[in-house]
């Protein structure tokens, strides 16, 4: 049986208390949220924190709500809560697409949105989803609150902009990409080997077009294929300002596939994953367009 190394445990009473505990115990202390990534790593001794700071009781880190021109999602929102949120699904259907295919109900009932993005596993579904949506991470430390765009949040596999004595408080998604606006929508598609498994590859698409079917904004996120910051920036740049045609979507998919860097593993070889990246980006763009009821010239 795998058991973690010895560690201390403290239950934070507030975000300030969590930050103070992290500062007092230094880099060997870690936040625990749902524990579905951290505890398995501790059991395997891939992580050996000396102190776990439990943030499960902090109401300030919960809730999904509209606030001005953003949708705010608290870091401690569980996957199941995001999946059940009518507000989140109405504005950003790709969040529900992604949550439906993350693990199983046991993990979804406990795992959190904040834990997912802070874990920064290259196969984490929400990382690509929030990147495509151009969300902003709100991070708090003893020096105050700072706001980091998702496209600057990930510093590499398992590394983020969150400092050792900081707490991710919430994610904010601009409502300018809301599916309630004419010409806008989003979608997330994933290929996995069996239901509930980690992605072989997945793609997120966010689209906004004007009355002439010109793409005014686009976000394309890629999961598990080594895309820098989970974004297919070159494909986004290609599509933005062009008419939303089937040909242009196909070209964007090719560009997304060219610019990612998958690695071969038990889920498949490089060529297969690269093919999936392009094909899923294309299909996610089509799905987002269909949701927004956009006529893709020459295809629909
Ligand atoms: C069997 C299984 C299958 C899974 N399948 C999938 C899948 O298909 N797709 C997918 O995307 N994910 C999958 N996951 C991962 C799951 O979504 C994550 O484990 C979970 O969401 C991480 O959140 P958590 O709350 O459990 O984080 P924890 O394990 O508690 O924490 C993870 C990391 O984030 C840090 N952290 C957590 N919250 C904060 C915060 N607010 N501020 C700063 N740092 C913080 C912790 O210190 C730790 O380093 C799977 C997990 C399991 C166990």
From TrEMBL:
Keywords: FAD, Flavoprotein, Oxidoreductase. The keyword RNA-binding does not apply. The keyword Flavoprotein applies. Residues 2-178 form the FAD-binding PCMH-type domain. It comes from the Bacteria. One of its GO terms (molecular function) is oxidoreductase activity. This is Carbon monoxide dehydrogenase medium subunit. It comes from Pseudonocardia hydrocarbonoxydans.
